[in-house]
Each structure stands twice: as structure tokens, then as C-alpha cells.
Amino acid sequence: MKAEYKFKDIEEKWQERWEKEGAFRSVEDTLRKKFYCLEMFPYPSGRIHMGHVRNYSIGDVISRCKIMKGFDVLHPIGWDALGMPAENAAIRMGVHPQEWTLENISYMKNQLKELGFSYDWSREINTCSPEYYKWNQWIFLKMLERGLAYRKKSWLNWCPQCRTVLANEQVIGQQCWRCDTVVVQKEMEQWFLRITEYAEELISGHEQLEKWPEHVLTMQKNWIGKSTGAYVTFPIVGQDQEIEVFTTRIDTIYGATFLVLSPEHPLSNKLVSHSNQREKLQEWIRKTIHEQHIRKEASEEEKSGIDTGQNAINPFTEERIPIWIANYVLMEYGTGAIMAVPGHDQRDFEFAKKYSLPIKEVIIPEGGQPQGELKEVFEEHGIVINSGPFSGKKSIDAIEQMALCAQEKGIGRKSTIYRLRDWGISRQRYWGTPIPVVYCENCGIVGVPYEDLPVVLPFNVELKGKEGSPLENVDDFVKTKCPKCNREARREIDTMDTFFDSSWYYFRYCSPDEKGFPFDSKSADYWLPVDLYIGGVEHAILHLIYARFFCKVLRDFGLTRISEPFPRLLAQGMVLKDGTAMSKSKGNVVDPDDMVKKYGTDTLRLFILFAAPPEKEFAWNEKGVGGCFRFLNRIWTFFQENMDIFKQSSQEEDKLSDDKPAMRLKIKMHQTIKKVGEDIEIRHHLNTAISSIMEFFNVIRKESDELKKSISGKLLLKDAMEKLIMLLSPFAPHICEELWEVTGHKTLLAHTCWPTYDPNLAKEEMVTIVVQVNGKLREKFLVKRDTPEDEIKELALGLDRIRNIIGEKEVRKVVCVKNKLINIVL
User: Fold this and answer.
1) Which residue among 2, 348, 648, 714 has its CA within the 20 to 30 Å range from the CA of 398?
2) Are strands 412-418 and 226-235 parallel, antiparallel or unpaired?
3) What is residue 810's predicted lDDT score, i.e. its pLDDT?
4) Segment 427-446, tens digit of pLDDT
């Protein structure tokens, strides 16, 4: 009698056994090659969502494959548990943030276990635990000792809804990254981390990150914003003062016809102080500063400015040029002053046209002629003209020569600047790591002694959602003694940005029970760097920059030898429904629990990995879930119908049949072993790996009747069926463990060696694909014969010639005919 596929019973059985036997517990074994696989740890919001399922399923498949291939695998999980959502939920529901967080962790932990992920739960970390955030405080104090942490008064991003400060990286399009509230500016005393000290290394370190997606590197480069150029000083006429500007295009300085200051420049108010319209001009400055703080980007509003009535001397032309103050120059970039070259900068050109300021042409295209009266801006490099002794030179050469000239004359110097600003970490909320300093009237700012760590969050705190830190009303917390003089002192009441917690957690996994330091350096040296880091691209300029910064700081503390924590990054795509990302507010969330109850864990895992390549977005479609469920049922049924195969003794006959069905299956088996292994380990094309397994199963079924006619055929069929569940097991581990056991195996499939292939049998025949665009032959290319149709389409659309033909046109459809011809319809 055939056994029914009862996925719930099977899943519970194997989850219990894996846990009981510690199947995925990591140990340092120098005789094996290590593999550290890490997915970005979750915030315990209450329920895991499909994005979590996808992220963690990707890591689980790769980890399971590596275990079977004999690697010493570290695959940990933990909780990014501090932060504003818990505090907001506490205010809304009248529960303590700790209670809310720990209940969510308990629920989500059970969800993750039900999904069968191969985590080493003995290494679980929780950032809201004092045992963890003690080390946040330890690291902060080390930074304070080295001048990497400091306090200053500054205009900062303030979210009225969250009632706290935000780092620049947490403001997206003028809105709070968490709640989308429009951010305003507020002047406050805050703690900063000197990330700018590492700006150059954060850029140069990209050379070690060849296995990162190019668009993530580009996002980081743009955010860090390295600019190489020169500082040049312009003397103010009639005053013993100068205005220093930074320019990347000193080759255009002969075309600088006016200077422009930011309204926040230290000289702005002074330069208009002698004007008979002083009050009007100063009011304009105040108003413009406020507007700049709201919009942040200089390109978002029509350009406006005021003439200070003062002049400066262009140090190269020695001509007088007017000094203006304008809304399109920001104090936070460069020096807060620019030399305006309207002939070769679009913003300056628009401003000069509006206020009838002179425009000079000093660069022309190579082989071009001067325009005379400029009607449009030429911003590229070219040939220098109207520039004294530099005329006729290529602008690239002139940049170097003019910078040297400025340096020799004492009017400038070559330099490099960065857009990156220091990271403000103070947050005016309760549910975060207390900043371990006290304020003493006698001693000033004093760090809490290391032996007194952790500074623990008080439990009894009134949370009403009012402005200011809830901690300021807790006298038992605030009032303390100065560690230096023992006089009355008060504690810092701000808490740390929770990105501090996640900037070094990957180190803690290496030795989560370490008591004397944030982590054991020997264990970190063994496991790190992380061999594969998996997470969303939305973290490109938040977590990923901060984590890289912390790694370099901890290296300089002597705690680690590595400079880059994540040499390989897999940025997985989002799960969409109804054309947008799944979101509770949009009402388009699919609950993983519902899918698990209806179809089982293995089906959900299989579908979410089969639907699209890991790095691509994919649209949720429950019909696809049903298809994967039917596939697993077909495998289950096929095994039940052929259990007698596994009773066949290899001693009866060990010579394999050489007939065509046997050879077809042998070739397909070895090709599949090779392709699935490479798709998982090297390319991370998990969707095509699943497709190959499905094709392999189809061949097994097709050839099975013929093979069962001989003992050698039965032995081959048995071998192929075993290989099938070995290859499928990283994707659908529960059903595969069950089939492995019922076919007579005593050991865990998870610990069984990955199958090997014969290179001669695994050679894949190549076929030519013809590509047509609107019915016309445009290109040909080679692919392996069994390449899936979707992959062939993707390859065709990616060909250089085809991309050039398509250009900006809309691709209406792509038709694949018998995996031999592609027709692209525009």
C-alpha cells in the first residue's frame, strides 16, 4: 500500500531530529575548508514575511550544499531587536518594548524552525540583551578614547513622527526611512562617529569587492562622493580676508566670472552687513537657510540669490568678480563657496542668465571652434582657450598644470574631498543601547569605566510618545556619580542608533559566549570574512557602509586581521504582489504560515527559489506554488511505486546496461549533478538548478519502465533516484530526508556526501540559437542543449547587438520556438 505524502508529519519529524542531533552545530575544524554563510538578521516585528522566506531559503540551500560537500559551515541567526518600532508598539498597545520584542522573537523563531533552515541555534544572538549591547558600549568607549566618537552641536535631521534624530543615510527623498514623514531640521548636541576618517579606505576597499553587484558599489561610491581637485583662494577686495573654494575643474578658472557662497557660509552675513539693504538681505539669508534644510538637494528649486555688493579677485585673471550668495550652494559640500563658471556648468549658466552675469567660453571640444556668444553649456573636457599661458592645452593636462601653478604661487593646493559626513548616532528614544558616558560639572564628559558595563536600560520607564528621551524622567538612571571625582553627575539620556548594533554582529556569531571581549579574535580569524552575505539592496548605503566602517575600526583596535567583512554579496530581489512590494499598509501581504499549512514548508521553499533568479524581483503567483506542490507529490508517488528498486542487490549483477535508455539516463544524471552543483555554489542560479532537477526527474520517469526490465537497469534507476533526492535535498530537505530513510539509509541525508559526476558523461552538447527582431535575423549564439527557455530568452536580450537594436523601444513579447529560435517583437 502506497504511503500518502503527509508533509506536516514529515516536516515535524525531521525538524525534531535535526534539533535533537545538533545536525547543524558548527565547530572549528581546521582539517576542512570553512564556509561562513550569513543572511542579514531580522528585526523581530512579529511575523516573518515572504522577503524573509526568500532571503533565508537562498542561504539555506547554499549552506546545505556546502555541508554535503564537506565544508565546515557556519550558518547562524539572531535578532536585530532594538529600535523604534518596538517603542512605538509599546506606546500604541500599552506593553513594554522588551515584552513585545521577546514575544515576537519567540514566535518568529518557531516560524524559522518550521521552515527547516539549517541554523546553528546555539549561536543565536539578541541585540536587546545586555550581554550583547554591553559590547556596543565597549566599542563606543574605545572609539571615544581614539577620537572616533565625539559630541558637537549641529543641525540635524529630525523626524516629528518618530521624535528622534536621523542620520543622513536614513533620510530618503526628504522623508524618514521608517515612517515616510517629512524630515525637518533641528539644532542639537549629538554624538557622532568619525566615519569620514575612513572615507578613502571605504572607496579603495571596493577593489576587494569584485563579487559585489556593480550597482551596489556605484550607490556606495556616489554616497561617499570622492572628488579630486584643488582648493583656490580668492582675495576679497578692500578686506584682509579670502574666500576659499574647492573645484574639480580648475581648468575652467579663467571662465570664473563670479563667486557664490552658501547662505550658511561664515562670511555671508558679514559681507552684507554694510549694505543699505542689510536687514532685507539678512532676512533672505535666514529664510533660504531654512528652505535648504528642508529640501537638502540643491537642484530641487529654482535658483535665486543676492548680490553682496562685494568683489573678489580671480587669482588667475587678476580681474574683479562679484560675490553672490545663492540657494544652490550648500555648506556641507566643499567649503560652502564655489567659483561660478557659467560657460561650463549648467547651474552657474542658469543663474548667470537669470541675473545677467557675464559668461566666458574657456573650453571647446577637441576639433571644435569657439561659439562666440554661448547658447548652451559645454561641460565636458576638451581644449583650453582664452586662458593665458594654458590656452591650447588639453583640459585634462591643464587641470594638473594649473593646480601645480596655484600651489607654487601660494594661492591653492591639490586635494581630495568627500561627500560623506560623520555618522550621528544619538537617538532620543528609549529602546536602544544607552550611550556609556556621564556629564560632570567638574570633569566634563567622562566615559563609564569598562568594569561597570553594561549600562543597563531601566525597565520602569513611562512611554508617552512625547518629544525628548523617555530616560530623562528616570531619576534612578539619570542621577549617578562621576567615575573620576565621585561628585554628582548625570548620565547621557540619548541611546545609540540601532545600526550600531548591526555593524559588528557578524563578529559576535564567531564566539557568542565570549566574556572578556566583543568576540574571540582567534575564532574570528578562523571564520571571517563572511564567505557569502545575503540581503536586500536597500541596505547598500546604510548597513553595508557602516559594517565596512566598523570592520576597519575593529581591525585598527587589533581585534581582527580583516579589512572587508563581506567579500561576496548576494543582493536578493523583492517579492512583489499586485505590482508592488508586499506591505501590510497596501494589504497585499501573503502570510508564509498560510502557505505552509496549505502546501507544506518544502513546497514554499521550492517555489520561492524557482520563481526567479535570487537577485531579481519576482511576482507572487499562487498557481506556481501549486505547481511545485504537485511536483513534490509526483516524486513522492514515484518513489512509493518503485520501492522494490531499493531492495535490488548490487551483488546480483554489477554490469550496467549500455542500451539507449540507460545511456540517456546516465548522461542526464551526470550532467544534472554538474549543473546543479555549479548553479548552487558558483552562479547562485537556484531557479535553473531546480529546473534541471525537474528535467532529470522527467527523464527518470520516462526511462523507468524500460530500465526495470533488467537488473542492471534497476540498479541504474536506483542510483538515479538516490541522486535525485540528494540534489533536491537543499531545496526541499524534509521530503528528501524521509525518502532517504524509507529507501534504507541510516544516516542523515544532510550529512551525506554530495554526488560526484564523470566529466566525460557530463559534457553538454551545444546548440545554436537564432535571434530575430521583428522577424529579421539579427544574431546567433551557442547554449547548452538543455538550457531552460527563460534562460535562453534572458541571454538573447542581453546580447550587445540586440540591446543596441532595441535601444529605448518597448519589447512587446519574446517568443522562443523549440529552444532553437528567439523572436523579439518590438
Assistant:
1) 348
2) antiparallel
3) 87
4) 989 999 999 999 999 999 99
